Amino acid sequence: MKRARPYLVVGLIVSTAILCGAPLRAQTVLSSATQRREFLRRLSDAAIERTNHVVRYDPAYVRIPYPGGDVPAGTGVCTDEVIRSYRAVGIDLQKEVHEDMERNFWAYPNHLRWMQLCTDTNIDHRRVPNLMVFFSRNGETLPITHKGEDYTPGNLVTWDLGGNVPHIGIVVDRKSPSGRYEVVHNIGQGPKLEDVLFNWKITGHYRYFGPASKSL
Question: 35-214 maps to which CATH number?
Fold first, then answer.
């Protein structure tokens, strides 16, 4: 009886591993993609729910608990709608931003923009420039384009309103007559659902799924 040639045996093992392993890998990838879509759907729903609340625009500095702190429910700015939407899906941006800033303080614009030389859990996560750095470091930075179809539910968008005044909102699963997904944001009249994606200069486009410890 002839002995099997070593390279034939190895080839058979490799071929079998590839054939048997492919469905498992595909299923794993599909599961991850499904979970990501589900997370973005829940974030979109949480942002839409925010439009049911009456919020007076108030940019005042407020001392709040840490972690899990929030300004009074009837007040807030654009960032507070993002923070509250993420809290609704179990992610505390106050905590996540603070911890990342403690480890990487000089990556954030605090020292340049606000002459701040240490972290401040009352306000750091409520500043758009800080969130832009945080999402770019810990999430996915997406292309800035002029195509509405590139902005999908659960995406975070930042703008320059003019004069270096920053703004932020969440793209949600509601379409306007233009065919574009609408945005939940607070620009002064409380949380609103509006077709404003291209109303101002876009400065950032992100996705954030939460900390690694809560990874999908």
Answer: 3.90.1720.10
- What's the CA gap between 152 and 67, in Å, rounded? 30
- Distance CA(121)–CA(97), nearest Å, equals 9
Provide the whole-model pTM. Answer: 0.85
Where are the domains positioned within the chain? Answer: 35-214
- Radius of gyration for the chain, computed over Cα atoms and rounded to the nearest angstrom: 22
pLDDT band at 76 (very low <50, low <70, confident <90, very high): very high
pLDDT tens for each residue of 22-58: 333 343 444 599 999 999 999 999 999 999 999 999 9
Per-residue H/E/C for the chain? CCCCCHHHHHHHHHHHHHHHHHHHHHHHHHHHHHHHHHHHHHHHHHHHHHCCCCCEECCCCCCCCCCCCCCCCCEECHHHHHHHHHHHCCCCHHHHHHHHHHHCHHHCCHHHHCCCCCCCCCCHHHCHHHHHHHHHHHCEECCCCCCHHHCCCCCEEEEECCCCCEEEEEEEEEECCCCCEEEEECCCCCCEEECCCCCCEEEEEEECCCCHHHCC
pLDDT for the residue 8 = 38
pLDDT reported for residue 7: 40
Asked whether the beta carbons of 129 and 114 are under 8 A apart, the reply is no
